[in-house]
Structures are given as C-alpha cells and as structure tokens.
C-alpha cells in the first residue's frame, strides 16, 4: 500500500469554485427525498473516471464549466441545499447554489498512476466531503478535475447517496458527456416533488438489511466502531472463467453459475473462515432494478434483498452459497420504506455494512461517459459510511481485445482493518486471487 504522505505530495494546485444551472430555477421550488432516499442519507458514493490525453485534447476548465452549466439545468435539485421542515424531515431547497468544482494537478503520468495498482490512492481524485454540520452550506455533489503530467485527466464524482443509487450517479455523469457532444435533451418541467403525508404504515417485521444508529443531527456521518480499510483487485476474463468453473463444478459454460454470485460466494466463505467469532449467516444483496428508468431520473430504486444461510458457511459448498445469493429469501425495499415512513424520516440508518453487503454494478453503464467520443481507460466506484460488517462492490471493466470481446471485473472490498489482510491471504491461498 502506498504511503498517504507520498500520495498527498503528488497532488497540487487545488482550486475550489462552484458550478450551477445555466438558467435560474423558479423560486420556492423544493424536492422532498423519498423514504428510501432518506434511508441512504449517511452514505456517499465516490467515482473516478480516468481518461487518456487524446480523450481530453482541447479541453480547458472554461470549456468544461460552460458545458456543466447546461448539464446541471437537467438536474436542478442536485444544485440545491438541504433544509428541514417543521417536523424535522429533510428536504432540498432548489436554490441554484451549485455543485462544488475542484481543480488539481498530478505530478505523475496517467500510466504511472495506474501502474501503482493500489486503488485506495484513487481517493485523492475525489472529494471526501460529507453533508453537514451546516446543511444550508453543504453541496450534494462535488466534481474534481485532475490533470496528469501527460495531459490525461481524472474526473472525480462525490455523490450524496440521498440523491440516488450508483446507477443514478452513473447516469448523471454520463449525461455530461452527452451535453459535451451536443446531445442535450429537452429540459424537464420545473415541478416541486412532495412526499404524501399519510398515516404511518404498520410494519410486521423490521428489515434485516438496515440498522438504526444513534441520531446524528445535521452532521450526516456514520458513527464507526472500528477502522475500515479498502482493498481492490482486478479479475481478468480468463481468471473469471476458472473461478466460475471451479465454483460450479462444471466445465461447460452453459452450466456454470452466474459470475457475480460466484465472486460473492467465494468472498462470503473466505470471510467466514478468517473472522473471529460467529460466521456471517446473513448477507445483503444490492442490484439494479429490472425496469428501465429515465435518463434524467435520480432515485434509490436499487433492488435490496437478504440471503440467509441455515447451515455452516465455512463447511458449505460454494455452489450452495451461489444458490442462496441468486435466489435470496427476502426482498426488503418495501420494508425499508415503511420503516423510514413510520419514523417520519427522522431516524438515521446504515445500509452498507449493516450486514455483509454485496453490490452488483453489472447493470450500470460505468463506461458510458464519453469525452471526444472515447471512453475512460478505467473507472472505479467506492462508498463511504460503511458499517462494521463491510461491503463488497463488483464492477464491470471495459471490454478488452483478445478476451473474446469480454471485460474483467474490479472487486472493491471495504472491511474492518483487522480482517482485510487475513482475507487477502485466504483468497490468494485458496483461490489464487491476488
């Protein structure tokens, strides 16, 4: 792992400003987050897109900002700021305060940086700011442009999860590429979004996928009990073939278990082996909802489900864990929404890491941001505000020539510090993953 001091010394020339919608939003426009949005409000997605010098040839900060003015018109509530109603429930005042814009320079080339292969260093290309403690002054989105010595560029997106899930965040930044290319869609109508005020619903059983935390007030940060660390590794298409074959016990491609489920099963069992104390018998699965959402729709509509093992995870066959993950026993979206509504949107929750959480970003268009008609050479996403059980993101990579048109997968783990290195050793020893 690269020393934080070394990483810090490579980034310089940091400048801050704000960018807002090109047109003034009508006064008194408000946006009330849904109950599912509020369940996610202590989490923050951090995405980084790396582009070669040829992809950003002719780009300047004034040109970038000019297109962003037009782009942010499409998502005017993302430029707003949070307030609280008389009841205390948060809402967004659409007041055009803008997103925070950060400029920086890196003394290395893009290739030199990517050769480090320590994805935890990517945090220098995206802001780690959170909402609060002063809601009226906290931007919901922060964008960072970092220029490499070679002329390449990193685009960092810090995204308040209360705005929408990872699929919304991806669509949001991809739309900037569309506006850059001159394909700006029609502006949506300016309409306040209000949540219906109804009698709190009855809740037979609380969801297993979220956990209440002590009230955080206006400082939207998860209170952590242990130090969390991040580890990422990349699996090439050929490695994935071997993993699928071994987990499934089948050599024929048509008979093999799904890729995401195979990766989850291997990590779930490996963690159960190295953890002290009871093994994790309940895991949360997060996927893209099957219905297509509009390109301008921001929402937390990800499918959340729970898989429960009533047998020893350590002693199980990996393919048995695959079956549990592929057909989870409980879908929890409705229960989460009822729980938040029952508490009138005033309580605080942790989702990622309430249980060991697996996130499948395979349905997202992570490489859909195009600059000068070219895609990024690499994209990575992580999340902040993770509970003690940890989270695993599984992300698709760009398709590679020579791999039958397939791409590999990036796996990012955020776990308690005392488990991460043990897990790394276990994955290397048992599955040749390093």
Automatic annotation (TrEMBL):
<dbReference type="Pfam" id="PF02458">
    <property type="entry name" value="Transferase"/>
</dbReference>
<comment type="similarity">
    <text>Belongs to the plant acyltransferase family.</text>
</comment>
<dbReference type="InterPro" id="IPR050317">
    <property type="entry name" value="Plant_Fungal_Acyltransferase"/>
</dbReference>
<protein>
    <recommendedName>
        <fullName>Protein ECERIFERUM 26-like</fullName>
    </recommendedName>
</protein>
<dbReference type="InterPro" id="IPR023213">
    <property type="entry name" value="CAT-like_dom_sf"/>
</dbReference>
